[in-house]
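Give me structure tokens for this 454-residue protein.
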Amino acid sequence: MTGFKFPLPLLGGAALGALLMTLPALGQDAAATEIVEAAVGGETPLQTQFILNSFLMLVGGFLVFWMAAGFAMLEAGMVRTKNVSMQLLKNITMYSVACLAYYIIGYKLMYPGDGWMIPNILGALGIAVLEPVGLTPDAADLSYATVSSDFFFQVMFCATAASIVSGTVAERIKLWPFLIFVAVLTALIYPIQASWKWGGGFLDADFGFLDFAGSTVVHSVGGWAALAGAIVLGARKGKYNADGSVNVIPGSNMPLVVLGMFILWFGWYGFNGASQLAMGTVGDIADVGRVMANTNAGAIGGALAAAALAAIMYKKVDLTFVVNGALAGLVSITAEPLTPGLGTASLIGAVGGIIVVLTVPLLDRFKIDDVVGAIPVHLFAGIWGTIAVVFTNPDASLGGQLISIFTVGAFVFSVSMILWTILKAVMGLRPSAEDEDLGLDVAEVGVEAYPAFK
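Here you go.
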């Protein structure tokens, strides 16, 4: 199309002139003056940055919330028909418990760094408090974002760590001991270790630990807790034979599994993209876009690598390997989705997909029953992704990354083992053998997901 083109400089001048003419109507408001000065100088006003940063975390928060639906669908498809309602119930109640526990204790515990540890742990405890209604610019700390948006974003990460545990221990755990474990995980275990990095604690300050969006702080933490639970809980009845052979227990609904995967993939754009924590400058919004593009690249690398390796090893492309390969690629790129290029991000994700195919049978060899494959996806790929930071980010050191992985892993695994063992001794973890055979939908929930199928 051709035609008259209005001169862009003249158009820009007219726009600025129109903005200046509105100033009397704004009553010489300081914010309006700031906007004009910033427009002339080419800078984003501080208030605008504050608003955009808050908006980014709100959008990221509800994208990560949508991941709760992804976990629920993935797990519902991976378990047998007789346990689907139980798995859905666990996901709803687990998310609710996690948010409540993080609000009451976890959020305030997470952000003093390790300053709360010694000498005054009680002084750091307290519930999360939002800013007052109708916050005015002069009463706000404009250097970052609203407390409400930050809490909303962070609580979704906390709930994600709990969701990882749910799938591993599916089909053979009672509801109430599981929810008690989730309460302790999200009130204490997760925020304590997160304070060491994201709260500015010793892993961040002394070891230069880098974990952009939580390959270790979120995903490996859930993986370590899940591993401890699987060991203490034991395998599902009939999973392993005395001679060491494995009986495959198919899931109930592969379309739900794939739907869950794509929901998680979609939510991951908020998980990683909003972890930039700012979009009030040209550089910040460019970095957000870069993070999201690399996040997608990690996922496709994981999916394709898992498909190729499964075809080589088993002569067939197992759908569950490809699903978990994509998720492992996402976990792998989460520790550093900013600094790689698209090709490197794909390779990092591809290694995650390979890890899944290799470690699923490894767990079976040790008779560790992981129903959905969460340990290979979130723990093993999370460790890999945290190490891989050193390949693209010059500020990372291999020693600092390894020390941090070990420190977080030792803390979460040991405390989780103790907690699972106490719960097993005090109230029991497993339903009776009869209830396990009958299915937890009937035995514990009373509502069958598929009543027509017996």
